[in-house]
Amino acid sequence: MASYTYEQLKVMTVAQLREIADGIQDESLKGHSTMHKEQLLPLLCKSLGIATHHAVAGQEKVRIKATIHKLKTRRDELGSSAPAGRQAVLRQQIHALKRRLRRIAARSG
């Protein structure tokens, strides 16, 4: 098995990461063929014993996007019949999460 650094893995495509994961027998990599890069990279680093603090940002990004999606769904379900105050709260929460995503992107980019 070849040794990699976090920086080398980070610039690889998801297809390349999946190829590397094919050669590793680790329970945490089960289902790697359907994972996105943000999910696969931290698991691959853990399996290969690569210490990294960068993986947290990727996991946080996925969690934030899922939260935004839930808030948008709730906003759409409420529709125009909901009180304006409730709609405003949802919009503010979505806005704050999007700003957080941009800060994460600026730090990692």
Span between termini: 29 Å
Proportion in β-strands: under 5%
Largest sheet at a glance?
Answer: none
Question: What proportion of the residues is helical, as a percent range?
Answer: 55-70%
- Low-pLDDT regions: none
Provide the domain count.
2
Structural class: mainly alpha
Strands, total number: 0
Brief synopsis:
The chain is mainly alpha-helical. The chain folds into two domains: 6-52; 56-108. The protein contains five helices and no strands.
Core attributes:
mainly alpha; 70% helix; 0% strand; 109 residues
Structural description of this entry:
- The protein has 109 residues and is an all-alpha fold.
- It folds into 2 domains: 47 residues; 53 residues.
- The chain is 70% helix and 0% strand.
- It is built from 5 helices and no strands.
- The longest helix is centred in the last third of the chain and has 25 residues.
- It is elongated and about 60 Å long.
- The chain starts with 5 loop residues before the first helix and ends with a helix.
What is this structure's SSE topology?
Blueprint: H1 6-11, H2 14-22, H3 37-48, H4 55-78, H5 84-108
